[in-house]
Amino acid sequence: MDERRPLATEPEADGRGAPADGEGRPVLEVRDLVKRYPGAEALNGVSLTLPRGTVLGLLGPNGSGKSTLLKSIAGLVHPDEGEVRVEGLPVGTATKARVAYLPEVDPYYRWMRVAQVLEWTATFYDDWEPDRAEELLQFMNLRRDQKVGGLSKGQRARLRLVVTLARNAPLLLLDEPLSGIDLASRARIIRGLIGQFRGGEQSLIISTHEVAEVEGFLERVVFLERGRIRLEGEAEALRVKHGSLQALFEEVFA
Amino acid sequence: MGGRGFTPRLDFTSTRPIYLQIVDEVRRAIARGELRPGDRLPSQRDLAVQARVNPNTVQRAYREMELLNMTETVRGEGTFVAQNPVLIRSLRAEMAQEALQQFLQEMRALGFDGSEIRALVDQALTGDGGGGASRG
């Protein structure tokens, strides 16, 4: 059962260093990515292309390389081999301004208040939209005067999402935004995401092993296993064939 | 009930494409009178958020309903259930057929033949469908 399609990752001979604003150009190109950690290989030759405006689910069990792949795209991990391009540019300072990355673990200080987290983050990014942050804060049921240290796990996850979605970045990377979070917060996070996501101009990769939660939202899926792409395809086509992505996930990783 | 609160019930474990499930749900709501001609449907974004599906999927469903003449979109105002008297009649007839076929299929699978099914239906309709009926 191999649904992989030929990947259109080969750059045209004259395509190197092409300007970043090419409309038809995929927002993300990953080629032959390898990352080794002492004693383990986190990524073992991953290639994928993300067309602009797509919602991609990066699915796989724990330890399959999802986080390493997202961190490589965000520029937080340096791969040993291969190449990542965001809007045609190699990962670096320029691409960091184009990528909004939601980490799996909280990066905020416990003594900070929600308002300080927002102000602090806003100073790093030119694409920060204060009005949008405010709207998201309300939707996510968070108050500006709450202290990070006093927030529940679900509330902290919602805060991370507020901070990520308040940026008008062309590429959003969400690393396990639903992991270990109560049902009510999960529903709110998914709804907030769908409500704020700017399809067309914005592209999104969401890594998760909670497949059922995002079943209706994904357009493409990549199944990752031990650092390799096991299966890749159109979400709706796979659903029609296998019943649900959840069922397929269980089948693939049984 | 106005159309704005309409939320389709979707089954993500079904092999039926999600956009068609949305169309099915609207058809059902129109046939049952839960959505009336002229009722405004939720905005595509609101429906996507409520049903937790991709906005593109909703867009596809709305386009499909437009093609089927179930809805009319007024620019800047929204999408409305079509003012089309034939629509409700034909949707009701269509859905009655579906329900009937499903029922017959189930009864035949249980081993009842035509006359037995007819008798059981008559009995149920006259209200004395108490436990007297037995097979064979």
Notes on the structure:
The complex is a heterodimer of chains A (254) and B (136). Chain A has 254 residues and is of the alpha/beta class. Chain A has helices at 66-74, 93-96, 114-122, 130-139, 153-165, 183-196, 211-214, 235-242, 245-252, and strands at residues 28-37, 40-50, 55-59, 81-86, 89-90, 99-102, 171-175, 203-208, 220-225, 228-234. Chain A has one domain (28-252): 3-Layer(aba) Sandwich (Rossmann fold). Chain A contains nine helices and ten strands. Chain B has five helices and two strands; from the N terminus they run H-H-H-E-E-H-H. The termini of chain B are far apart. Residues 132-136 of chain B have low confidence and may be disordered. In chain B, helix 1 crosses helix 3 (55-67), helix 1 crosses helix 4 (85-109) and helix 2 (44-51) crosses helix 3. Chain B folds into two domains: 3-83, Arc Repressor Mutant, subunit A (Orthogonal Bundle); 86-126. Chain A binds chain B through residues 55, 187, 190-191, 194-195, 197, 199, 212, 215-219, 236, 239-244, 246-247, and chain B through 10, 12-18, 45, 48-57.
